[in-house]
Structure formats: structure tokens, C-alpha cells
């Protein structure tokens, strides 16, 4: 769905209530007091359910004006008197106008003025309520979809187009007999449904339901208002033609860990808004599809056909599948299958790649790997007992025997990192630097290890080098976008730099992925406090609640491990 048209308000007040002088303008305002929030809630549901759609919300209009003939209002009110026992007799009506009708059954001057005031009040308040709901919805849309997807289209019904005039843009009552008749072209069809079978439109107010609603000329004014919004936004805002993938291949499909592969593609856009990016997506046997963010190719609005490529190195042995997404400036997207355009003009299946582990990616066969493994296991035992000095010595022996021992380099870095925080003997800037040296050795062996990139980021946090820390966290997230600890570390670093809005987005991602970690909530509270938000205390309370459940195992300034 590309465009959603939405109008609201009149059904919450009803035309006959506006035309009832016993309802004061305050009654109309009260009827509109709750419209803003319901309209906002509807918009949020539509934004989330139809994530590529644009929404145009139209205003209503003043039904009655100073140009509305008194005879037209008298005819309608006489009809209401015959059919609605409550009309003109609301509580307090006597205090307002005594009686809305003269002895001849016509509206009194006070009643006429009351109806006109109600109509103007309705028009003004409805525009304000709907406009505020649209503004709030766009704030949500901007923060969640990085785009304003809602527009407000106010219509303009001048006084001479109001109800009952010779040039009115509204359907009117033309016959008060036999339950009433309106001059809209659907009247006879509605009556045909009241045949005892359908049992629809059989009440008097159902038969005249069209009264006060736009006729053909009024609909054209709505069309003008909607087109005006679209023209202001630009046609790319409404582009509904999806981009397509015209070529897709991966070479090679069999390779060793650390070896690169190339993904070639050709994409095109015929919708006029132009291409904005092509994304590389990957899954393996245990993890579902994820975008490899640093592999995203940013385009400049070309329509194509446009060819390009990615390179990637799968991080570990096993089977992987590759695909691409192409996105245009209107937010439309397609995948390699062209599944969003019914697999047209051509469909490509995700391409399977098998990665094997060779001897060059294992401990060298020339070394005593069993001895290296023994040193490593001893180091893990010391590490688990928080004896980090002894752990470092054991991991160091393992790497001397087997320089390609990735896990030993990683654990030695962890021992330096957490040891520098816990034991006074380790309190030294050299320890985070030693940790970084170990992590670099591990990354030289396997640059796709997200855990190591995250730990390296923590080490830079300990050194107060937040720019470098964020670079490491981004590398981890490029490999694993679901890595909550990396989102937390990135948010912590952004907070320390004073980038509170970005920090909040990062920490909220961490919480969304793992809401049970106390420090995530604590950091959110700190950020909200810095932003002056009243919601900070709720985050602190959640952190305290979780701390009673989860106990920390080990920690340093930029990270905490929980049980």
C-alpha cells in the first residue's frame, strides 16, 4: 500500500449535533477534547503496519456559515423535530436559548447564531486537534523510520460553499417526507438495501446519512488539498514503483575461512525518485538474515540500470547464504528475488556459499597443539577464579606454542582488561593497551570475530578514547547487528562524548535486544537525566529491580558481565 487517506472528526461529533442549537460551542469543544490522542494512535498503528506507506490526513470543514440560507436550516430542524425527540432539549438548553424554535416552528435568531458558532468551533478545533496528532506522528515516524511519512491537508470550504447555498459543496435534505431524502446519488441504493433482507439503512438518520458531507464539487476540493500536499512533498514522496534487481551472482561459492568472495548486482528504478542504496544481506545455519551494514553501497539518486559489487569474507566455517536489497528515495525496496514485485522482471534465489577451515586457519600442525591446548585450559581455570596474572601467563604460553591460537589471544586480552579493573596490581594504562595488543592479534587471525571487536572497544573506553571505542563497536555490530553489549558500549561512549540523543538510540537498541541487563537501564537513566527527561527515574527503578535478580560476575568501566 503506497498512500493512505485519512479524515477524522465528524463521526465523533455528528452533523445533527452541530446543527442542534441546544449544544453550545463548549459542548463541541468537549466532543473534540479526546480526538487528538485517538487520531495519533491510529496513525502510529498505520505507520507500523504499513511500513512503506505515506499517509495524508485531511481536515473537515465548516458545515454552516453566514451564507447558509435560513430556510435550509429551518427545513432541516423541522425534520429533526419530527424524528429526534431529544433534539433541542439537551440539559441546560433552556438557560441558553429558552426555546430554539418560534411558534411557527422556525429557528430563533439566537438558535441560528448558536448553530453557526458551533460549526465554526467544530472546524477550528478539529483542525487543531488533527494537526497536533499529525505533528506527533511525524516525530515518531522520524525517530523510527528516519522519514516524515504523514502530512496534513487542510481543505478550504469558503462560506458560499456551505450547507444549503446555491453553490454548496455539501449534500442537503430535499424532502422531509417518508423518513427524509437527500440529494446525493447513492440515496436510492441505500434505500434498496432496506428491503427486509439486508436490514440496512432503515432508520430515519441512516437514510439521510449523506447530509452535510461533500458532494462532487466538495470532493474535488479534497482532491486539490491532497494533490497540493503531494506536490509540496515532491513526487518522490509518493513514488510507488518499486526498484528491481536485474542481475545477482556470488563468486566463488566454495572458499576457505578468511578468503574473500564477490557479490555482483545490477539494479534499476523506474519510479522517478531514484536509487538510494544497495544492501548486502547474509545468513548462516544458525542465524537468520541480517544486513552487513558496512557493506552498504550508497547511491546518488540514479535510475539505472546500475551495476556494482560487494566483497565479503565469511567469519567461520559452515554454510552461508547471500542476498541483496535495493532501496529508492521513496523508501520502496526489493530483494534479489524481486519478491515485492511478484518476482518480476526476473527472480534470483539467495546464493549458498560453503566455507571450509584449512590448516592455515588452525594451530600449525608443526607445533604441539595438545600442549598449547593444555596451557589454554589452565589459563581458563585461572581466569574463572579471577586469578588474572596467572591466566595471562598460561595464555601467553599457549600463543608461543601456537601463534595462530585465536581464542588464546582473545582470552589473554580479556585477562588484561578485567584484571586492570579489579586488582590494584593491574591498575595501569598498560593493561588496556596490552589487551588491545592481544585483541589485534586475534583479529589478524579472524577479523570477523564480533566478540573481539567489542572487547577492544571496551579497552578503548577504559583509556578514555571514545572515538576509537565507537569504531570498534561499529565493527562488532557490522558483523552481528543483534549484539546488545556492543550497542550498550557504543551508547556509553556516545554519552561520555555528550552525544546524548545518539547515545539514547544506541542504548535503547541494547535494551530491545536484551532487556534483562541492569546496566543498560542504568545507562538509559543517566542519558535521560542528561536530556532533562522525566522518564529517567523509571529507567533507574528498572535497573534496581533487575540488579536483585542478576548479579555481576566481572566488570570494567565500559562493560559488565552478568550471571
TrEMBL record:
The keyword Repeat applies. Pfam families: TPR_11. Coiled coil: none annotated. SMART domains: TPR (SM00028). TPR repeats lie at residues 372-405, 450-483, 484-517. Transmembrane segments: none annotated. This is Uncharacterized protein.
Amino acid at each position: 500500500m503506497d498512500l493512505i487517506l485519512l479524515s477524522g472528526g465528524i463521526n465523533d461529533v455528528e452533523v445533527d449535533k452541530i446543527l442542534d442549537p441546544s449544544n453550545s460551542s463548549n459542548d463541541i469543544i468537549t466532543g473534540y477534547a479526546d480526538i487528538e490522542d485517538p487520531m495519533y494512535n491510529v496513525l502510529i498503528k498505520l505507520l507500523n503496519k504499513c511500513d512503506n506507506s505515506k499517509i495524508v490526513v485531511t481536515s473537515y470543514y465548516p458545515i454552516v456559515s453566514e451564507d447558509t440560507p435560513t430556510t435550509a436550516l429551518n427545513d432541516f430542524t423541522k425534520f429533526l423535530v419530527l424524528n429526534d425527540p431529544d433534539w433541542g432539549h439537551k440539559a441546560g438548553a433552556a438557560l441558553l436559548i429558552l426555546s430554539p424554535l418560534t411558534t411557527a416552528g422556525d429557528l430563533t435568531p439566537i438558535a441560528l447564531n448558536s448553530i453557526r458558532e458551533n460549526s465554526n468551533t467544530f472546524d477550528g478545533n478539529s483542525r487543531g486537534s488533527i494537526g497536533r496528532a499529525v505533528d506527533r506522528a511525524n516525530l515518531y515516524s522520524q525517530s523510527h523510520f528516519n522519514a516524515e511519512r504523514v502530512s496534513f491537508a487542510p481543505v478550504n470550504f469558503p462560506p458560499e460553499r456551505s450547507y444549503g447555498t446555491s453553490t454548496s459543496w455539501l449534500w442537503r435534505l430535499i424532502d422531509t417526507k417518508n423518513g427524509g431524502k437527500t440529494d446525493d446519488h447513492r440515496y436510492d441504493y441505500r434505500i434498496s438495501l432496506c428491503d427486509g433482507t439486508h436490514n440496512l439503512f432503515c432508520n430515519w438518520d441512516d437514510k439521510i446519512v449523506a447530509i452535510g458531507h461533500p458532494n462532487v464539487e466538495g470532493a474535488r476540493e479534497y482532491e486539490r488539498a491532497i494533490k497540493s500536499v503531494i506536490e509540496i512533498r515532491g513526487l518522490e514522496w509518493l513514488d510507488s514503483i518499486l526498484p528491481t534487481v536485474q542481475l545477482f551472482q556470488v563468486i566463488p561459492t566454495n572458499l576457505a575461512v578468511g578468503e574473500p568472495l564477490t557479490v555482483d548486482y545490477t539494479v534499476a528504478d523506474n519510479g522517478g525518485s531514484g536509487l538510494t542504496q544497495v544492501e548486502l544481506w547474509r545468513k548462516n545455519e544458525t542465524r537468520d538474515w541480517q544486513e552487513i551494514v558496512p557493506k552498504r553501497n550508497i547511491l546518488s539518486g540514479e535510475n539505472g540500470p546500475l551495476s556494482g559489487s560487494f566483497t565479503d569474507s565469511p567469519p567461520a566455517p559452515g554454510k552461508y547464504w547471500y542476498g541483496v536489497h535495493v532501496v529508492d528515495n521513496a523508501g520502496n525496496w526489493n530483494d534479489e528475488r524481486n519478491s515485492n514485485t511478484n518476482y518480476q522482471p526476473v527472480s534470483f534465489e539467495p546464493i549458498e556459499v560453503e566455507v571450509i577451515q584449512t590448516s592455515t586457519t588452525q594451530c600449525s600442525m608443526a607445533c604441539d597443539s595438545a600442549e598449547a591446548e593444555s596451557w589454554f585450559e589452565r589459563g581458563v581455570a585461572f581466569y574463572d577464579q579471577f586469578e588474572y596474572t596467572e591466566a595471562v601467563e598460561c595464555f601467553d604460553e599457549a600463543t608461543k606454542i601456537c601463534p595462530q591460537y585465536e581464542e588464546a589471544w582473545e582470552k589473554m586480552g580479556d585477562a588484561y582488561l578485567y584484571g586492570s579493573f579489579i586488582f590494584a596490581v593491574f591498575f595501569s594504562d598498560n593493561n588496556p593497551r596490552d589487551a588491545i595488543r592481544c585483541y589485534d592479534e586475534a583479529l589478524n587471525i579472524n577479523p570477523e570475530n564480533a566478540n573481539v571487536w567489542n572487547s577492544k572497544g571496551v579497552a578503548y573506553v577504559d583509556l578514555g578514547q571514545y572515538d576509537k571505542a565507537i569504531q570498534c563497536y561499529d565493527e562488532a555490530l557490522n558483523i552481528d547487528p543483534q549484539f546488545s553489549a556492543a550497542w550498550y558500549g557504543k551508547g556509553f561512549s556516545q554519552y561520555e562524548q555528550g552525544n546524548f540523543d545518539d547515545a539514547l538510540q544506541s542504548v535503547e537498541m541494547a535494551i530491545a535486544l536484551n532487556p534483562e541487563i541492569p546496566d543498560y537501564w542504568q545507562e538509559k537513566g543517566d542519558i535521560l537525566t542528561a536530556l532533562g527527561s522525566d522518564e529517567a527515574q523509571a529507567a533507574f527503578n528498572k535497573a534496581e529491580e533487575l540488579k536483585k535478580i542478576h548479579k555481576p560476575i566481572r566488570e570494567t568501566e565500559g562493560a559488565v558481565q552478568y550471571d
